[in-house]
Amino acid sequence: MKKVFKEIIPQEGFTFKDLVMEILLILGEKLAKALNMLLVGLDDALCFKARGSGELKGWESIGKKERSLITLFGLEIRYKRRGYRRKGPDGYEYRYPLDELLGLRKEERFCPLVQQIAVALAAKMSYREAALFMEKFLLVPVSHQEIHRWVQEAGEARLAEQEKEREAFFEDGEVKEGRREAELVVIEADGVYIPLQRTGGARRAEIKLGTMHEGWEAESPSKKRFRLKGKECWGGVMEKEAFWETGACLYYRRYRKAGTLIINGDGAEWIEGVKEYLPEAEVYLDPFHRNRALREGLSFSPELLRKAYHCLDRGDLVGLEEVFTQAVSIASSREQKQRVKKLKEYFERGGNILDWRNGREEGLAGISILRGLGAAEPQNNHVIAARMKKKGMSWTVKGANNMVQLRCLAASGKLEGWLDAHQRARWPELKGSRLEEVRERVLKPLRGTDVGGWLRASIPLLATKAQASPLGEVLKVLSCNSSFVA
Q: What is the pTM of this model?
């Protein structure tokens, strides 16, 4: 019994966490050995079957080569499998039937579950922080460079998906089924600048971000906090044509009909490009940027600034024009006159400057909550800045674009599902006879492995009165439960 305690529990003391982790490592080691034997047996059966069917005709055996895959809790699955080669026009090509059967990609060291978790973490924290988390809490010794590579692959795959959808929509007119109707659709667009790595080119790049939603819904019964309803995001470091093509593709694939389509922007030239792709849209100037421009243009006259706000509240555009005329007449310097002129030009090109809700109460009777526009700035911070502008980070344009795709998926609540589909595409799914082969020769024998028997034989504590102790109860549960291999 003393020997068992020394093997499981450190002499200098332990916590419950230490106990759980130690038992997980012990069980993982036993599981890895059992899985290794089963994979070797499957490799034997698979290769004998392939030879009998003539599938390996023309292929030369190169013997058995060892392979390892690291999964959660430091579990390393090591096994030897047969390899073959044949000479082609460009040199030798190699194949490993067992890897092909299991859908294992060449030279990958970590299982797809590890990769999926790491990418999801890296979408929320820095690559180094994600690597530290994986090593400290999941016992996976993966480097931040490896996680960076997985993120780039995922981001590029997402960009390729969007490009394919745009081509199918704009060139072939293909529209997916299942589109729905909405009484209101709001698109809030804005840009945020991020620092670029010093490569001799530009020092900053603008990420354009679009947030599409169907209005607002209360987060609690008190209705003191609200969230965007049906939110979906897209964006990247892209030209206005590519940005609005992606947005229009998303809009038309999502909706068959929208009663009212509102665009909210900061007055930037690229936002006006929406009219080419969504001609039915009504473009409004974001209240935050509108009010900031008012303060900058009329700061020399607090009284006129108050009048301007009052005119906007009443929807009085004639009165606002009179305020601007009066401001030019009382301006005491050329600089002040220029600021008023600049303010007028900004209002003229930026879109409708009034509250979008004016006169819409009856037209949107089916929507219980109507709030002012202004989600663009918070979304910039939540989706982009929170991950990409903190702690002195800098990016390449390609790396930033790839990260934005994952951040947009996360903000839309789709990252987990998309990553799952992405991993299935990278690691082929077993089907038909291949799946039955794995079930019969690996999963079925593994489920029948009596791990509890090993525990009962290896832990004498369970045969003494100490089995009633807290430690004994934990070990007793573990010894009777082998479902973790199912």
A: 0.81
